[in-house]
Amino acid sequence: MSNIIEVKNLKKQFGDFTAVNDISFEVKAGEIFAFLGPNGAGKSTTIKMLTTLLSPTSGSIILNNNNPVENPNAVRHSFGIVFQDPSLDDELTAWENLEFHGVLYNIEKGLRRKRIEELMKFVELWDRKNSLVKEFSGGMKRRLEIARGLLHHPKILFLDEPTIGLDPQTRNHMWTYLEELNKSEGITIFFTTHYMEEASKIAKRIAIIDHGKIIATGTSEELQIKTETSSLEEAFLKLTGNVIREEGANATDKLRAHRQWRGGGKR
Amino acid sequence: MKTIYIMWLRELKRYLRSKSRIVGSLGQPVLFLLALGYGLGSTFQKAGQGNYIDFLAPGIVGMTIIFTSIFSGIQVIWDRQFGFLKETMVAPVSRFNIMIGRTLGGATIATIQGIIVFCLALIPGFRPQNWFMIFPLILIMLLVGTMFTALGTAIASQLEDMQGFQLIMNFLVMPLFFLSGAIFPLSGLPPVLVLITKFDPLSYGIDAFRILLSNSGVYSLTLDISVLVIITLIFLSVGSYLFSKVQI
Ligand SMILES: Nc1ncnc2c1ncn2[C@@H]1O[C@H](COP(=O)(O)OP(=O)(O)OP(=O)(O)O)[C@@H](O)[C@H]1O
Ligand SMILES: [Mg+2]
Fold this sequence. Notes:
The structure holds 2 protein chains of 2 kinds.
Chain A: E1 3-14, E2 17-28, E3 32-36, H1 43-50, E4 58-63, H2 72-78, E5 79-82, H3 94-104, H4 109-122, H5 138-149, E6 156-160, H6 168-185, E7 188-192, H7 196-202, E8 205-210, E9 213-218, H8 220-227, H9 232-240, H10 251-266
Helix pairs in contact in A: 3-4, 8-9
Chain B: H1 2-17, H2 19-46, H3 52-82, H4 84-89, H5 95-121, H6 134-157, H7 165-178, H8 191-198, H9 201-214, H10 221-244
Helix pairs in contact in B: 1-5, 2-3, 2-5, 3-5, 3-6, 3-9, 5-6, 5-10, 6-9, 6-10, 9-10
The complex binds adenosine-5'-triphosphate and magnesium ion.
């Protein structure tokens, strides 16, 4: 099988802080790949570089045979994404948000309307289709974002903590759907999560990233054997240590905390 | 085409849904019309400048358009903060079209607001010299709206959050407004200021409004329109370039 994502020596700096530090990995076409790591490890930053939202400081990315820096539009054609942070238009209705997405992704009208109905029923929001998104609960917004991510069937689907804030029913429901989609259409799935059972059960291959560096890759079993542990959670803790990561109110807070911490370590 | 249309539609839907934005942004022009219209009207007439409301109305229409359209352009910052910008930035469509759609949406909203203010100006007694001039007037409103939405977008593409908003209002929008001849004639100004007003694109818009509405501009309609078209094209190119380079 060929590689649909190839990342070599990828690096991203914000000022003098290195968020992603020289990482390399591949994802095969049709694979389900999980990216695990503590808060602030650099997962979202990596996804942003893969999806043309951020340009790398150095290193190379090939996604579906195209380079996101040189040829962003070709790359944008090949993926769909569910972001970690909210990305809906609150002033539009649920249905309008999906319709907007469908038009941007050039899905023909008949198919678009059909899929919107199917997906809204799937995430149980069909009876709320004409409500403004700002009236939704956090979980309902999340479900709508997932429906939107599945509206066009891309070659690669990026899911940045897709199940955050979802109840177990919806989570199971969603993963069953995604696994089916992966089998029937061969869609490659690249996701991040903090639920280890989820990663262990769904992902064929896992990369663990910490402080911007990939520290291990392999199947859940391989990681457990390597660390002589009996669950992915234990393996993860053994690899990344037990220290709780600083979680600031925003990126700059985090950055400042990180700098202080690193500076303090050196002195 | 579809991209431009859907972006335009989104801007319009958001506008039509926020009643407070519609009413709120009409408050200022109405206040200016009434306070200045009644407050300065007699002084203006005594100074031999003619009917002040006929002079003021086109200026206030211009004011409505610059405020509304810069504000529409600045919405890019809100979209960035609320996260929606990401959704449009990863879509497989050209960012140029996204920017054009947004800009035309902003221009349309500004024009609607301009027309409302035009109608409100009829209450204190403003009358256009020829009602048919309304049609070319609307076209020029759209042009001025496009120009300033593009400018707003260009600036917003460079800003991370709303911190810079006050700065833009005080050091860009207000000077552009006051030096445009919207509320007082530019003819009596000291030469340095007159020179500066020549670089204010809004003054050409307002001049065109006056020519069409009360046949009383300082430049010619051809000059006004040429300047407006050129500046609009420049702002559109700069705006779409900066917008296409936005990182999240
Ligand atoms: N725009 C930015 N400016 C400065 N620093 C940033 C920026 N974006 C991210 N960072 C920093 O880069 C590091 C990695 O952030 P990233 O969002 O990739 O983490 P993550 O692995 O997704 O974490 P989480 O599990 O909390 O989502 C963090 O320390 C963060 O503070
Ligand atoms: Mg993240």
